[in-house]
Amino acid sequence: METEKYQVLPEEPLRLPKGFLAGGLHCGLKKTERHDLGAIVCEVPAVSAAVYTTNLFQAAPLTVTRDSLSAGEGLRAVIVNSGNANACTGKQGLDDARKMRESFAEALQISAQQVAVSSTGVIGELMPMEKVMSGIERLPAVLNRDGGEDFCQSILTTDLVKKTASVIVTIDGQPVMITGVAKGSGMIHPNMATMLGFITTDAVISEPGLHALLKEMTDATFNMITVDGDTSTNDMVLAMASGQAEHLPLHEHHPDWLAFKQAFAYVAEVLAKAIARDGEGATKLVEVTVSGAPSTEAARAIAKTIMGSSLVKTALFGADANWGRIIACVGRAGVVVATEQVDIRLGEFSVLEKSRPVPFDDEAATEYLKTADTVTIEVDLHDGEYASKAWGCDLTYEYVRINAAYRT
Amino acid sequence: METEKYQVLPEEPLRLPKGFLAGGLHCGLKKTERHDLGAIVCEVPAVSAAVYTTNLFQAAPLTVTRDSLSAGEGLRAVIVNSGNANACTGKQGLDDARKMRESFAEALQISAQQVAVSSTGVIGELMPMEKVMSGIERLPAVLNRDGGEDFCQSILTTDLVKKTASVIVTIDGQPVMITGVAKGSGMIHPNMATMLGFITTDAVISEPGLHALLKEMTDATFNMITVDGDTSTNDMVLAMASGQAEHLPLHEHHPDWLAFKQAFAYVAEVLAKAIARDGEGATKLVEVTVSGAPSTEAARAIAKTIMGSSLVKTALFGADANWGRIIACVGRAGVVVATEQVDIRLGEFSVLEKSRPVPFDDEAATEYLKTADTVTIEVDLHDGEYASKAWGCDLTYEYVRINAAYRT
Questions:
Q1: Domain map of chain A by residue range?
Q2: Any known ligand binding at A408?
Q3: A250-258 mean pLDDT
Q4: Is A403 annotated for ligand binding?
Q5: Most CB atoms within 10 A, among A30, A135, B107, B366?
Q6: Calpha distance B348→B351 (Å, rounded)
Q7: Is the pLDDT of residue A407 over 60?
Q8: pLDDT digits (tens, 9 = 90+) for A128-170
Q9: Is the ipTM of this complex over 0.95?
Q10: Which of A193, A318, A401 is facing B405, going by the closest CB pair?
Q11: A356 and B90 in contact by Cβ < 8 A?
């Protein structure tokens, strides 16, 4: 095991990398007095990259953000609202997202294409632009170096907890900070679990380098969580690098590249796991590890199939060491693997070896599943050298209650 | 709409096509005194075809059945047990399945490869062969023309109701019967929803013709139902034709081919819908119709994605006319469709037109979702000429309870 070359910072107070300000306020999109509009702003054009939902129906803000990034000027700001997703809102929705971008750019006296826009909340309802515009007017005044916490609050919907991660990694002997903020799967009228992630750093890095890193890390973390298998119209992860740390530009051959990559991966993984743990109705975090796979793609497909199975998820809620449901997922993941040599472990309990059940202490296993804060499922295919992890949660009465509740 | 050319027979008493006998008995695989071993037997070698689960981990009986069918002698019998799936049981399991085949063949004085074997129940436990063998000894004596009902009972696990369908269709002026029996998604220790279907007919048809028809009908019916997205190790649908009806052999150019096909489709669809309606914890049957698709595959992928969505299924349990979750499924089904012209109807309620929400009577829609015995979701993509249906059920507290219950 390699030593980790980064230092994890405390969650509170949330620190921002050099060059960044943040803040949030209540403009009236949420019914209660909670923050619903926030922004991260960079003092200089930040090298920026984003990944988006694969859903064909993409919300208006995603179109606007793509347009801003395509200008290649570097982002100076991202503005985010919660309470309304601005999805399935047609031409008016697109006009509204553009207006949010332009008004915030004007307020900051920067160009419109230096602003990204992100929304989460109700879909199919037009954005109440009067409220939003009044919020945008007030927003610049609340931005500051300690505003990460307020920003954090402003992007939450029915998330039970805020999700942040922050680390310092040493590059060329200089401290470089990476700070991430995310929101997860809260129930939204008319209900959609949307995942948003914002990662800032003061590292010096090129746009292609940042984009490749973000894509690679998203595939291994944010794209490996599942709460219920549904994919939102608004999902987006945005990375911004201010370049204000004092080191030589990062690239694949930089001696500290691996350290930076590990630190970035840590931030992405903490956020992804926090989203999974806070899944609707969840009582526990579940981590599935598939190893011995013939390819990374195979390992990922199987890990996600296990983590997405309602039968596996209800068994975990019921503390049932049900390996039958797990092996059935391995077999239906759409990946060809050797069927005679699969090992399965639940926590410390080996339950299947070479695809055959082995005796285990059922009572102790049940106790483990009942009490563990994080349940681990390990599947070794003995059919290659690749591995992957997926994260999710159990399927509970509370999930059904939350999602079956009448819209009111 | 074409007129249906078949006559639906009453469910009780279940009639068998000419040439078939059936029966069932209790041999001790189930703890209570319910039937757990049954058979369908044909007086002559029946033209036979089967389709199997796509799960990589296939139970031993499937291997044995494939072997029998590959001999091409025509099946004289299928023996089915419930209570033990004989899956993940290794070489011993395969030996046991073979022994079931050979012993039953011996009891009937036919060749082993004229017998198919099918099992459903617990996985990972060896078949209690002493009980099974005593049952096989007694089985021939209980077979008779009215034994369909007993057979039906013998294949159920925790199904709440039996699933049958029977029709008469006229071919060359002669009555031809098609009778189907199925079992669905019952909870089995350690829990797996297995689907089994057995369709018998006295039609005169070739093996390739029967196989092609079974495959086509299974793709449109049994393969279009989803209870929780999991695929069992034991799923199988078997068709047997005794050829004892008096008509010219059926083939694609026979003037009554379409009538036969419709009648066969009816039987398969009734069984598939019965399985969906009896899904674990279900309170209602849900029928999703996707039309205006660029291909059948696209229509099927979208229909199955909608029907498989936990968010859609919980909304239906909660009587929530939540079109947002439906459109999100259309967008993540892995199929490229035009995103600006999607219509969605829930029952009689138009909720989305050209991908935009339209006002509807929310209270009346909720009332419909609450009270309808079968809820229909119609999605028109306006992007082609193909259509497909999928069936399933809602996701309820009871589903979680059934599947989270400790194995005891």
A1: 6-275, 285-404
A2: yes
A3: 96
A4: yes
A5: A135
A6: 9
A7: no
A8: 999 999 999 999 999 999 999 999 999 998 788 899 999 999 9
A9: no
A10: A318
A11: yes
Condensed to tens digits (0 to 9), the pLDDT of residues B54-81 reads: 888 889 999 999 999 999 999 999 999 9
- Calculate the dihedral angle through the C-alpha atoms of A386, A389, A390, A391, rounding to the nearest 10 degrees: 180
| Whether A63 is catalytic | no
Pick the CATH number of B285-404 from 3.10.20.340, 1.10.260.40, 3.30.70.3340, 3.20.20.60: 3.10.20.340
pLDDT at residue B193 is higher than 70: no
The total of other beta-carbon atoms located within 10 Å of residue A147's CB is 23
On the question of pLDDT at A124 being above 90, the answer is no
What gap in Å lies between CA A367 and CA B391, rounded to an integer? Answer: 37
User: Looking at the partner chain, which of A56, A308, A314 has a beta carbon nearest the beta carbon of B400?
Assistant: A314
Tell if the CB–CB gap between B324 and A191 is shorter than 8 Å.
yes
Q: What is the pLDDT of residue B375?
A: 97
* The two three-digit tokens of residue A84, written as one number: 């309304």
Alpha carbons A22 and A1: distance in angstroms, whole number: 36
- Asked if B330 and A357 come within 8 Å (Cβ–Cβ), the reply is no
Contact B324 A192 (CB under 8 A): yes
Q: What percent of chain A has pLDDT over 90?
A: 78
User: Which phi and psi (to 5°) does residue A365 adopt?
Assistant: -65, -40
The answer to whether residues B197 and A279 touch, using CB atoms and an 8 Å cutoff, is no
Q: Which of residues 367-396 of B touch A (CB under 8 A)?
A: 395-396
Where does B6-276 sit in CATH, by number?
Answer: 3.60.70.12
B53, B179, B194, B226: the catalytic one is B194
Residue B337 has pLDDT above 80, yes or no: yes
DSSP state of A36: -
Phi, psi dihedrals of residue B248, rounded to the nearest 5°: -70, 145
The rounded distance, in Å, linking the Cα atoms of A329 and A290 is: 12
Q: Does B341 touch chain A (CB under 8 A)?
A: no
Q: Provide the 3-class DSSP secondary structure of residue A251.
A: coil
Cβ contacts of B403 on chain A, cutoff 8 Å: 310-311, 314-315, 318
The CATH classification number of A6-275 equals: 3.60.70.12
With cut-offs at 50, 70 and 90, classify the pLDDT of residue B175.
Answer: very high
Enumerate the residues of chain A whose CB falls inside 8 A of the CB of residue B337.
56
Q: Greater confidence, A15 or B31?
A: A15
User: Is B399 in Cβ contact with A328 (below 8 Å)?
Assistant: no
Please say if the pLDDT value at position B189 is more than 60: no
Distance of CA A73 to the CA centre of its chain: 25
Question: Could you say which residues from 177 to 236 on chain A have a Cβ atom under 8 Å away from some Cβ of chain B?
Answer: 190-193, 228-233
Same-fold call for B6-276 versus B285-404: no
Model pLDDT, residue A5: 84
Residue B330 pLDDT more than 50?
A: yes
A3 is in an annotated binding site: no
Task: Answer whether residue A408 shows pLDDT above 50.
Answer: no
**What single letter denotes the amino acid at residue A398?**
E
Rounded to whole angstroms, what are the CA distances from B264 to A80, B42, B168? 56, 19, 10
